[in-house]
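Journal club prep — side note

Before the paper discussion, L.F. wants everyone to see what a predicted structure for a comparable chain looks like in token form. Sequence:
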Amino acid sequence: MLKLLFTGVWVCAVTLGSVYFSMQYASAPVLSDAEAERRASEEYVPGEIVTVPVIKDGAVQGYFLAKLSFSAKREGIAKLHAPLRQLVTDELYDLLVGSKFIDVADTGSFDLPHFKLLVKDGLNGKLGREVITEVLVEQLEYLSKLDVERASSGQAIAYDKPAPVVDRNGNVAADKLPEAAVKASGSVH
């Protein structure tokens, strides 16, 4: 009986010790004063889904769906003449409608870092000062007119093989692709 009591005390001591040490090592990373000040002066602005028609040769070819969120300066947001979400929607339409930025025939060449930089610079240019500090992509999709027709009639959308996101040099990061995408596309070059 005494042996069982000592075993229980020992298990409790080991459990409490492990919890204590794990809490000590799991503390938040220490930020520099400049980084902490920068984060305190910024605000996260959640986005909403924006549907932008992709127009080519005078006709709608499909729809680009984007949900973008932003990190923005608090003082800059306070000085805006309109709500930030509406300004973002307007800028996305200006940027994407009728532009050659999204090539419907070649979705594999989409450059995500360049897209984020383009949106950030476009918004800051429209606002006349640097308000947006970072663009955060929550969702990006392209649906062709055929996909929309199928979905509206209750049919399943037939997706082509996944289009990998490439960097500015045209390199595909195969290690960042989901395993299913690598298998579906064969060998990634």
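L.F.'s comment for the group: Residues 175-189 have pLDDT under 50 and may be disordered. Keep this in mind when we get to the figures.
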